[in-house]
Each structure stands twice: as C-alpha cells, then as structure tokens.
Amino acid sequence: MKTIAFTNQKGGVGKTTSTINVGAGLARDGFEVLLVDLDPQANLTYSLRLSSNRLENSIYNVLKGEVEADDAIISHNGFDIMPSSIDLSGAEMEFANEPAREMMLKNKLSTLSKDYDYILIDCPPNLGLLTLNAFTAVKEIFIVLQSEYLALHGLSKLMDVIQIVKERLNPEIEISGIICTLFDGRKNLNNEVVDHIKDYFGDKVFDTIIRDNVALAEAPSHHKTIFEYAPESHGAKDYKALAQEIRNGQLQHA
C-alpha cells in the first residue's frame, strides 16, 4: 500500500484538484483508492457533492474516537472517500492535550479493514497539527507547486517541518514527487518557474505538468472528477498521464 500526502502551505495551487484527479485516475486503472479529506475547509468533500453538514460521520468523528475509520468511508464512482467536516477547524485546540496527538491519524488508518493500493491525503494549507498527522501517517509526500512567481517562496519552512517529522516521528517519510500545476506554456514566466523548480528538486519533479485548464476549474462546481466532466480536456489528459507516471514509478530517479 502506498500512502501519500498532497501538501503545500499555500492555498490555490491545485492541491485538492490533484488529490481528487490522481485518485480518480488510479481508480480508473483498477486500483483500490481511498481519498482522505483532512482539510477543515472540506473542499475535496464538497467537490464530490458530499455535504459535510449532512454526513453522519467524517474524519473528525474518527479522530475523536467516536466511530471507527471504516464507518466514515463513502464509496464514490470507483473510489472511496473519508470526508471532512468544518468541526476540524478547532482541531489545534481540541486535540492539544491528546496523548501522541501527532499519531492520531496513523493509528486510525491502521484499523481499516479494506486493503487499499493507495491512500491519498489532502492536507490543509498550513503546517499545523492536522498536517503533522498526515506527515506521520504516510511514507510519501507530493508537494503541489503552482507554475507562478513565488512558487518556491516559503518552501524552506515546509522542508524544515518534513525533516523534523522524519527525525522525530516518521523516519520512513520522503518527498517523492513534485507536481507542477496551472502551467501555461505560452508564458515565459511559467517556463522559467518550472525550470527553477526542477533546479531545486531535480528528479523528484514529475515529467507530467498539469496545464492551466478551465475544465479543471469547472469540474468541482459540477461535483465531478475531470474524467467525468471533460474526459477529452487537457486536464483529463494531464491527470491520466500523471496517474500513470505514479503507477509505473516513472520518476526519473526511480
């Protein structure tokens, strides 16, 4: 089983879009996939027409110990989802005094009865307790970077946090992939930014670059993955290629 956290402390970079569509792409290839929405904003949950206000159980109830992890899973068009809830917004304070609070998610996911090929976690756009839980629960981290100016700004803090988690909580964790998103090849700046990202991260950068595509922005409002909403779009082609690259381990260093 591969456990992967999709992260960036900045919002609006395509992190949730990537989690959903990489998961959907892997599911289309026949893999058993679980998406975990660990963001209190619940954008992944809402994007797939799952209203967190109407859900009986969510990741919040799981972390609270009110229900088992299996009880919060919803099947959706070929893959499973553990939805989020706005109740998670108070997690920093609510779980502050919990023993081994950074290990809560890892411990809960270890009780899942289903053998998944991939568990993909959509992290909040910050480096707080929930993100630490994600980093402790996974073996791989995918950093999602927008192909725009300041893409690398602030990344040193993220790298520091990952290193601390590796040293103190999860020695198996590795940054195994960098996903470049919102790319417009007609813009010199976008090409320069991608070059800078490749200079910084080397062979961790996926060959597949996610092009800026209106269908990707529209799909969540229709509560669909890109493959359901616009299967012939650039977005669908890019995420299909990215899912295949992940599936085949076609990172240059592999």
What attributes does this structure have?
globular, about 250 residues, alpha/beta, about 15% strand, 11 helices, single chain, seven-stranded mixed sheet, about 40% helix
Detail the topology: elements first, then pairings.
Layout: E1 2-7, H1 15-28, E2 33-37, H2 43-47, H3 59-64, E3 74-76, E4 79-82, H4 91-94, H5 104-109, E5 118-122, H6 129-137, E6 140-146, H7 155-168, E7 174-181, H8 188-201, H9 214-218, H10 226-229, H11 234-248
Parallel strand pairs: 1-5, 1-6, 2-4, 2-5, 6-7
Antiparallel strand pairs: 3-4
Helix pairs in contact: 1-11
Note down, in words, how this protein is organized.
The protein has 254 residues and is of the alpha/beta class. The chain has 11 helices and 7 strands. It has helices spanning 15-28, 43-47, 59-64, 91-94, 104-109, 129-137, 155-168, 188-201, 214-218, 226-229, 234-248, and strands at 2-7, 33-37, 74-76, 79-82, 118-122, 140-146, 174-181. A 7-stranded mixed sheet has the order 3-4-2-5-1-6-7, sandwiched between helices. A hairpin with a 2-residue loop joins strand 3 and strand 4. Helix 1 (15-28) packs across helix 11. The two termini are 17 Å apart. Mean pLDDT is 93; it is low at 250-254.
